[in-house]
Amino acid sequence: MARTKIEHVGVMVADMEKSIAFYEEVIGLQLKDKITHSNGVLKLAFLGFDVDGETEIELIEGYNDQLPQEGKVHHLAITVDNVEEEWTRIKSLEHVKLIDQEIVVLPNGSKYFFFHGPDGEWIEFFESTR
Questions:
Q1: pTM over 0.90
Q2: Strand order in the sheet with 104-105
Q3: Residue 98 carries which DSSP code?
Q4: Which helix (H) or strand (E) holds 112?
Q5: DSSP letter assigned to residue 16
Q6: Cα separations in angstroms, 67 against 28, 37, 41, 42, 99
Q7: What's residue 56's pLDDT?
């Protein structure tokens, strides 16, 4: 049951390239990875300061083009050592509602699943291959 750090914070964006440029130029983050989700719809980009143990920003394009004026933080992701073990554990908790019906595997081999927090917030357990 190893949860080791906050992996990333997912931010929904309307224009991936514009957002990457902003976070690089204005914030000083570096693009670390860019992939199309396994579902073929979502575009994902991971940015960070390129330091050990950092929490990354995940930009997500294609989820919802009706973003509120203040933007949208989509989810909080926690790094786990074994996503399958965590899936089994979370499924056994009657008071926790799963969002995903199965563990999702990205094209780069990273695995994750989402579940709701007590106020409906999205929490992701993420096993990274990066």
A1: no
A2: 30-36, 43-48, 56-61, 3-13, 72-80, 122-127, 111-116, 104-105
A3: B
A4: strand 111-116
A5: H
A6: 24, 20, 17, 15, 21
A7: 93
